[in-house]
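Q: I'm building a small set of examples for a reading group on sequence design. Run inverse folding on the following structure and report the sequence directly after it, with nothing in between.
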């Protein structure tokens, strides 16, 4: 049974709709994940962001709202993950949970999958590079303690945002794996420096699938 679906390129509306479907299934107790790409450059905005504030005037890149929070992400050159889990798959009882309590076991899966792909990563708090680079809408323009970074340079490797309910969590993660398809300065007023890691989508999907198979508690269905 395949637990991580490897998908091709879709437009932003389709990608967000399919991640919402994963979340709905997780609320019914099913683990689901998809690793996907985009049909060109897109920007996804956190659910509380407004395009007129997050993006430059006359931004040439289409945008779509995510079901998760966080800051804006420029896509098209990244390996993107939608991962939805019932809280029981994380060893947590259903009910009100803090973001930190849920985020930690989830980000551990992403960190382990990246490490299994040969990408050296750590949480920002484990390095000396935690920094706020001022007001910016760009997810990759600052490093928080819980961000996934390169331990030697502080380069942010993965942008990660969550949506939680009483019974499930949806994680949307973006890992830049090549040069952006457009200049980020045409999208954000204060863009992050351009950087990426060597990562193949199929390899990452396989590593995450193996981790989910090993860690999913007995009795939790996997789509």
């Amino acid at each position: 049974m395949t637990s991580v679906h490897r998908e091709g390129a879709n437009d932003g509306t389709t990608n967000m709709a399919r991640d919402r479907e994963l979340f709905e299934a997780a609320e019914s107790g099913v683990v689901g994940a998809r690793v996907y790409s985009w049909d060109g450059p897109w920007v996804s905005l956190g659910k509380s962001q407004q395009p007129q504030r997050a993006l430059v005037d006359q931004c040439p890149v289409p945008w779509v709202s995510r079901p998760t929070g966080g800051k804006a992400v420029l896509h098209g050159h990244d390996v993107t993950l939608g991962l939805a889990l019932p809280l029981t798959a994380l060893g947590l009882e259903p009910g009100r949970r803090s973001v930190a309590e849920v985020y930690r076991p989830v980000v551990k899966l992403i960190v382990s999958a990246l490490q299994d792909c040969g990408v050296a990563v750590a949480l920002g708090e484990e390095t000396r590079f935690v920094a706020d680079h001022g007001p910016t809408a760009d997810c990759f323009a600052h490093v928080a303690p819980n961000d996934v970074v390169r331990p030697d340079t502080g380069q942010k490797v993965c942008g990660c945002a969550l949506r939680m309910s009483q019974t499930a969590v949806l994680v949307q993660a973006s890992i830049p794996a090549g040069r952006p398809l457009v200049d980020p300065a045409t999208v954000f007023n204060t863009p992050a420096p351009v950087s990426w890691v060597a990562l193949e989508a199929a390899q990452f999907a396989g590593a995450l699938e193996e981790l989910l198979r090993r860690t999913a508690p007995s009795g939790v269905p996997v789509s």
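The chain has a mean pLDDT of 92.
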